[in-house]
Amino acid sequence: AKDPVRVLVTGAAGQIGYALVPMIARGIMLGADQPVILHMLDIPPAAEALNGVKMELVDAAFPLLKGVVATTDAVEACTGVNVAVMVGGFPRKEGMERKDVMSKNVSIYKSQASALEKHAAANCKVLVVANPANTNALILKEFAPSIPEKNITCLTRLDHNRALGQISEKLGVQVSDVKNVIIWGNHSSTQYPDVTHATVGGKPVPELIKDDEWLKSGFISTVQQRGAAIIKARKLSSALSAASSACDHIRDWVCGTPEGTWVSMGVYSDGSYNVPAGLIYSFPVTCRNGEWTIVQDLSIDEFSRKKLDLTAEELSEEKALAYSCLS
Ligand code: NAI
């Protein structure tokens, strides 16, 4: 039998945490033959609720779940973890300035970076979900210099999956037949959902959907605004789809992407596609042997170029704002 993998979920007493931990314990993230030990971190006001989640995990009697650590101590939570899913963060509340929210998250991600760097297992893979996801991941990277930058990513797979869903609904085809959409840039409303290279059953999506107007406007804004639409409908933000997409992100990263298929991940930019190096930016990637690689040489038309640049600009601004919170 395989040795258990230790998976950290921060913010585990929250909404996404509640949907995510049973998925991990059922083998949806790492495979049906991979035992796991769950490490769950939250803050003291949520300690009791966190303990309730731990009780439910025990009650669910998951065969793959070999242990549960539920704690409000970041060092204890990070010790020995092989995968870290960072869902905990400070939400933007009504009337709060952007800078104040950024400042709270910068201090959270700075201190959790240190705890991970000192105590996580070697080669720990990190996925940041909490918003502002790209910039939280960047802060984590800066304050955990001994963790390879390749190991620090953020979640844009939910946006990617939303794009697959919209194309499947529009064409009336199975979502599993839609491939190779791309989310470029920030996990925010400036993201660029790109179907230029997407296919259904091997045929290019732009040829199948003869509605250029929809592709260039309705589709893009629906995907960009989907998070807000969920909040409006549910009075709560996306949770099951976020949790499911986080599992997809880690599974593909660890187990590899299928031949001929790419996915979107927020990763440290090396300057590919003239995206400024040093941002955490969402790119199309393939994964093999536990490592992602940015898909190269895709053609970028003028329309796309503008959208890639716009979301990069926003990320550069966020980066500057985050750094101004450090001084
Ligand atoms: P939530 O408010 O239900 O849960 C957040 C949890 O984090 C709470 O239990 C809170 O106590 C905890 N927390 C706060 N500070 C913490 C700290 N320093 N250490 C550990 N835990 C801490 O929020 P929800 O709905 O679960 O969302 C979590 C985050 O994910 C939010 O930032 C949200 O904006 C983001 N999100 C990102 C998505 C993406 O696609 N990247 C999609 C959906 C949500």
From TrEMBL:
Location of the Lactate/malate dehydrogenase C-terminal domain: 156-320
Active-site residue list: H187 (proton acceptor)
Gene3D superfamilies named among the record's database cross-references: Lactate dehydrogenase/glycoside hydrolase, family 4, C-terminal (3.90.110.10), NAD(P)-binding Rossmann-like Domain (3.40.50.720)
Keywords: NAD, Oxidoreductase, Tricarboxylic acid cycle
PROSITE patterns with a match to the protein in the record: MDH
Alphabetical list of Pfam families matching this protein: Ldh_1_C, Ldh_1_N
Residues bound to NAD(+): G11, A12, A13, G14, Q15, I16, G17, D42, N105, V129, A130, N131
CDD domains for this protein: MDH_cytoplasmic_cytosolic (cd01336)
GO molecular function, one term: L-malate dehydrogenase (NAD+) activity
Presence of the UniProt keyword rRNA-binding in the record: no
Domain of life: Eukaryota
GO biological process: malate metabolic process; tricarboxylic acid cycle
Domain Lactate/malate dehydrogenase N-terminal span(s) in chain numbering: 5-152
Enzyme Commission number(s) from the entry: 1.1.1.37
Binding site for substrate: R92, R98, N131, R162
Signal peptide limits: none
UniProt record similarity statement: Belongs to the LDH/MDH superfamily. MDH type 2 family.
HAMAP family: Malate_dehydrog_2 (MF_01517)
NCBIfam families: MalateDH-SF1, MDH_euk_cyt, PRK05442.1
Protein's UniProt name: Malate dehydrogenase
Native source organism of the sequence: Cynara cardunculus var. scolymus (Globe artichoke)
